[in-house]
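Exercise 7. Given the components listed, write out the predicted structure of the assembled complex. Treat all entries as one system.
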Amino acid sequence: MNTLNQVLLNPAFQLGADLDGWRAAGGGQGLDAALADPGAIIATLEAADLRGMGGAGFPTHRKWAAAAAAPAPDGDKYVVCNGNEDEPGTFKDRHLLRWTPHQVIEGALIAAVAIRANRVVLYINPHQAEGRAQMRRAAQQWAGTEAVRRIERLIGKPLEIAVVATSGRYIGGEETAVISSLEGGFPFPRRKPPFPAESGCHGAPTLINNTETLANVPHILHHGAAWYRGLGVGDAAGTKLYSLSGDVLLPGLYELPMGTSLHDLIFVHGGGMLEGKAFKGVFTGGPSNTLLTARDLDVALDFDSVRLRRSRLGTGAMIVISEGTSIVRKVAEYIEFFANGSCGQCPSCKAGTFQMARLLDRVDSGRAGPGDIAALRNLCRILPGSGRCGLIDGAVTVVESSLHTFPAEYGVAEPAPAETA
Amino acid sequence: MTSMISHAQALQALRPGADAPMRADGLAVNDLLERFHPDYGAKARVSLRIGANAGAPCHPALAGLLESNALIDDLDLAGAEPLATDVLVIGGGGAGAAAAVTAAMRGARVIIATKLRIGDSNTVMAEGGIQAAVGADDSLQRHYEDTLRGGHNEGDRALIAQMVSDAPEVIRWLIDLGMAFDLAEDKALGSTLLRKKAGGTTASRILCHRDFTGLEMMRVLREAVELQRGIEQLNRCPAVELLSHDDGSCAGAILYDLERRSFVLVRARAVVLATGGSGRLHLQGFPTSNHYGATADGLVLAYRLGARMCDLDSFQYHPTGVAHPRHLAGGLISESARSAGAHLLNGLGERFVDELKPRDVVAAAILRECAEGRGIARDGQTGVFLDARALVAADPDILETRLVSLGHLAAKCGLDPRQEPFLVYPTLHYQNGGVMIDGDGATSVPGLLCAGEVSGGIHGRNRLMGNALLDIISFGRRAGTRAAESLGQRQAGRGGINHVHRWRRALAQAELPADVRAPLLYPSYGNFHLRRTAAA
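Answer.
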């Protein structure tokens, strides 16, 4: 059975901004089902076990339920499609925005129905100019359609669909930074609680979902929760977009059943290691998680299984490293990315990422002394939890993990003491 | 092997004191080239399979290098000494030196990296001279037309027009740097430049310094590099790979320091490749007049980063390379000897070609004589005679004045040019094609510029004598100027070798071998192997 590209990347849906084509391919029926029984939407998502695909893997129905239950003081509620995707190694949302804008927008409209939102915001990274243009065109095609009129009758207010450019910065994708950004400010993350679902944009309840998450919703409503659950491997539900990159023969975007093993992703779909070199490790879910190594090749790539290996599936990005590629150099690149991406609000993050980048650069260029490694370890101990958002934690995780797993590459003779027995 | 006339027999066939007869044979130029020139024929080209020129023709030996694996891995970058500069010039010949000096004069910090030492290059071997239309009976238009026609109308017209227009200013610049040219009259002031005629030209346009013009040019360029503030030299540091940004632009280069046996990572806002040609590949077994370092490194590096190339199946074989003695084979006997009136004679004592025809025609004519049994064999080497006896007889001082190098070469060959002709055979001399550039030397890869023999398009499919020295200074200065303009434009970010990973995927998908590694850096007999094979 061909398990590749069954749903989101199904060739029949790669249409761009073509609403008629989308309907002809079966689009719109999810929204019809949602409108027929708005009260059942959240329960269906719960039964389908849809998770947040932006990295957290948080059960989607819980966010939706919170937003649906929250009172709207000024009468406004927001649904935000988060299309800020910016971190190294992740390239899934830009594909969905560019090639399947209606899939995404229909998901957002169903969310509006479920939580009775009157403002739908499509929050797109301006660096993805083509995706933004397609989304803008697609949003216009929905205006005045019967489906939208039905939503307006249901919520009793006009429905506004807006395409908004993000700041284009990495931090702008953080949930609370999205809110700062939509309110017109610099994308500074805020402390939680209050959670956006209760008090978000201008104090209104705001449901923020990743692009891929929303894109799954129309299919679940159309085909049912049981169908969606059946797509996954074992206990995992649905499919996942995996952004495969690094030292593999065929890097690219692969939609596979959630829970496909890392081995199959790399060696079956990715064509194996480039030049047949030995596999060394994978930066999973982008550059802010614990590295997986050769003994983790059998791991099922779903949120829970990866977490059992003390890492996270994250966005589904898999940056594969072979013998011959320096772990330190990669980590140095990523920390430099975080240092440039830090918003600068929290001194520990602003200075901490910079210091780690400086130290890693010295290790990478062979200029580091023993004191530098000790300094790195100290930073890994004191920095976590010191920021408003998770940026500094992610940066520390990848440094700590690489130090722990590949001490020799740092010029450290002995492995650091294991944290768990 | 075709039978040859022995050296002793051929000497007897020479008519002392009389002008040799010219054989009229009626073979049209195109027929001659197609049948006898090494650029033609079945072994002369294959189609490239990957890269920016996929599908385009290329010499098989060169294609093997262009479609090869990199010498280094990501891991080699770790521990490499990091340097940063505005402009990195790779190559220490005339083009590289001109680019470095020009960029530094415009305020850029420059690193010039050379494989051996500054000046160790083909520039110093250019003996004949440099073309510039400075005579009253000459014009830029004539220079343009000669160059275009010499290249079989395949040259890039805009590049040619720009180069010939630059020529007078190039000469002025070189004189300002202190270069000496031969003068028409021997007086201290008010003399004019001596102009000589070159093969394939319609006017006397060659300016020279005796018959070691390139050496004199490199002398002043080397001094300029040494004295110009803002230039750092990295000698004995061949480039093994370029660095790229994620957007595919050039970010610098990785060098290999031969003395310390370690990698050096140079980040730069602009890189000028001036690595010269590829004669040391010894295409089709030909000897070469080229410098030891001419191993096509620049082509390999630029192609891997995505630069577009042209005319990769077109090379120049200089007609008069030394054929005997064997240890000097390939060494050049300057065209200035033929300009001055030396004749080519076959084993029957006949002239068989107008010696001042373009180089490809003369070379093909010599190969024809050898193929048709009128060549001369001596100690296993074959060739034809280059006869300068009448020339020396007419002007006994000429070996001390205008043809100094010829005299030296005769001594090295152990013959007396007054008595005995040289045995010559075509020698692989110049790479006509190369990286495509615009008028400023910019390639299709942002941040990467090229100047000199590594670039292509100027000389079409055959270069005229004296246009190489003009090319390197004209485009070297322009590339240096353009590189200095990049100052402050792009932040020299981290840069890596992601393009190499992409390249390796392409190799695997085209089922090309991954164990052929390039750039070569040195010829195979050079006894230096930086991971040339997978096993090493």
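Discussion: DSSP finds 16 helices and 21 strands in chain B. Residues 157-177 of chain B form the longest helix (21 residues).
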